[in-house]
Specification:
alpha/beta, 4-stranded parallel beta sheet, 11 strands, 7-stranded mixed beta sheet
Length: 294
């Protein structure tokens, strides 16, 4: 004979048919199909990459994730992944789903489809001026948004050591600095040497540079349809001299800004830039996105 004193032990439904709302419910995670270009983060290892391949092996589905440098690691589908910081269950694509070719960003990295920009991290890339920032954004912008890294222009680097001290770098607050005309015996090299001797720069600051007087010169001459960049006398302001040599207006700050936009419009990808700039920017991004050791 069944008792009428209430639900039996372990039951989530009473004799009278109502549900015991006090019993905890397991959270059902959203399922996301592992289509090419989808970017996920493995919780256990911290690996972030875009899906480039799916295969079935040993009775389970395996997906390969390529990071921004095209390094690939394989993971079984299922739980333990994040998308935009939210936990998901990654499942195999539905039968008949046509494979998509993974695109490429302007920097040559695997293109992330449908990924929202990450919330900005504390780490930063500093560049000398607005034009440097615009060039970095045009070529590496997609990568930086995925990584949550912000580019900030300085007004020159004369006070770089004090600025870094105010920034207060740390293991989770790193700083990468891209410097123009970083060559031996230059003013810039002396400023950087002073900075790297300061306690503020220890371990958590990376300064890199290119040899050009201005970041404009990092654009390959062939990209602009010229054999070489014009040589400008030291007695003339370099940017105005360049615009004058091109036969473009060059007398005002507005002329310089418009001239730069004409040059920048010719840049479509990393292949339009000199390797000496490409390598340095990639080095900074790798530094800022490397795992933190506390």
């Amino acid at each position: 004979m069944q008792s009428n004193n209430g639900p039996s032990a372990g039951s989530r439904t009473s004799n009278w048919g109502y549900q015991d709302l006090s019993a905890p419910k397991a959270r059902a995670l959203p399922q996301v199909q592992a289509t090419r270009g989808l970017v996920v983060e493995d919780v256990q290892t911290g690996w972030v990459g875009a899906v480039v391949r799916i295969e079935k092996s040993g009775g389970m589905h395996i997906m390969e994730l390529a990071d921004r440098r095209d390094k690939v690691r394989a993971f079984p589908l299922g739980f333990g992944f994040l998308i935009d910081g939210e936990p998901v269950e990654v499942v195999a694509p539905a039968p008949g789903t046509p494979p998509r070719k993974a695109g490429r960003t302007a920097s040559g990295s695997v293109k992330v489809e449908g990924q929202r920009a990450r919330v900005a991290k504390a780490s930063r890339i500093w560049v000398e001026g607005k034009h440097d920032a615009e060039l970095v954004e045009k070529v590496w912008g997609d990568d930086l948004r995925v990584e949550g890294i912000v580019v900030e222009p300085l007004r020159g680097i004369d006070d770089l050591t004090a600025a870094v001290k105010d920034f207060a770098p740390g293991p989770t607050r790193r700083l990468g600095v891209l410097v123009d005309h970083l060559v031996p015996h230059s003013k810039e090299s002396r400023i950087v040497a002073d900075l790297m001797r300061s306690p503020s720069a220890k371990n958590n600051v990376l300064v890199v540079g290119h040899p050009y007087v201005d970041v404009w010169q990092a654009i390959k001459p062939a990209t602009l349809g010229i054999p070489a960049w014009p040589v400008i006398p030291r007695t003339m302001e370099w940017k105005k001299g360049i615009l004058k040599a091109f036969g473009w207006p060059n007398s005002t700050a507005e002329d310089i800004g418009l001239g730069w936009q004409r040059l920048l419009s010719r840049v479509n990808s990393y292949s339009d830039l000199e390797p000496s700039l490409l390598g340095r920017v990639e080095e900074v991004i790798d530094f800022l996105t490397a795992p933190v050791s506390l």
